Amino acid sequence: MQRLNLLSYNVQAGIESRHYSDYLLQSWKHLLPHPERLTNLARIAQMLRQFDIVGLQEVDAGSLRSAQVDQTLYLARQGAFPHWYRQINRNLGPFAQHSNGLLSRLRPASITEHRLPGLPGRGAMTAEFDLADGEVLAVGVVHLSLGWRARRRQLDYLAQLARGYPYLVLMGDFNCGCDSKGLRSMVRAAGMRGLDCELKTFPSWRPRHNLDHILVSRPIEIVSARVIDYMLSDHLPISMCIELPPNLRLAESTLEASDRLVSD
């Protein structure tokens, strides 16, 4: 288990998009349930089965539009992930539960939620996985703001968070590309790598922007990284295979299987 396969995916609450016009013509799907949603999520779950840890953005935690289905839990069950967690960032009561999600085949020792600076509704969460030498591997799932002012404050927050973890993965929808000064500044300040201008994920039907990223601390080796052509959202998923330094290995407790799903 020196190598781990990671994936980050903004699933747009199970809504398939193929054209810019879909934002208008299918806008009702962001408010009301529709029968194709679970079909799309089931197809996504099959693709997720090849990964060890998955970070999700724009999953619904169970509301009118998702037919009361907690989509993180649904993907965990369909994808056979023994551990899962979801963080509700924008709670609109019975109408929508905007969330980040984590799916894992490894047992996290702890999970911490972070409310990011700016207007309410944006968050990050960090899962800590025990390593055999007493260190931890931290995996963060993030979804940043559209506005650059709030996003710059959020990137500063993440840079500060990264200083507490020698071994860290940050993945998610950063809503900015590799040309962002704020993102580049955060990567430098946090001593991370993985920023690749060629890994374009948005829009899924004609990818021109690299809004989704997987970043790792410098001691972690990047074996490979790619965008997966799996058009079931307005974003494409991004994957990365990483390798832990030779002197590190996962603790036995991290590798233990579970016969039940673990959330909050």
Automatic annotation (TrEMBL):
The keyword tRNA-binding does not apply. InterPro entries: Endo/exonu/phosph_ase_sf (IPR036691), Endo/exonuclease/phosphatase (IPR005135), GPI-anchor_lipid_remodeler (IPR051916). One of its GO terms (cellular component) is membrane. Residues 7-235 form the Endonuclease/exonuclease/phosphatase domain. Pfam families: Exo_endo_phos (PF03372). GO terms for molecular function: endonuclease activity. One of its GO terms (biological process) is GPI anchor biosynthetic process. Keywords: Endonuclease, Hydrolase, Nuclease. The keyword Nuclease applies. PANTHER family: CALCOFLUOR WHITE HYPERSENSITIVE PROTEIN PRECURSOR, ENDONUCLEASE_EXONUCLEASE_PHOSPHATASE DOMAIN-CONTAINING PROTEIN. This is Endonuclease. It comes from Caldichromatium japonicum. The lineage of its organism: Bacteria, Pseudomonadati, Pseudomonadota, Gammaproteobacteria, Chromatiales.
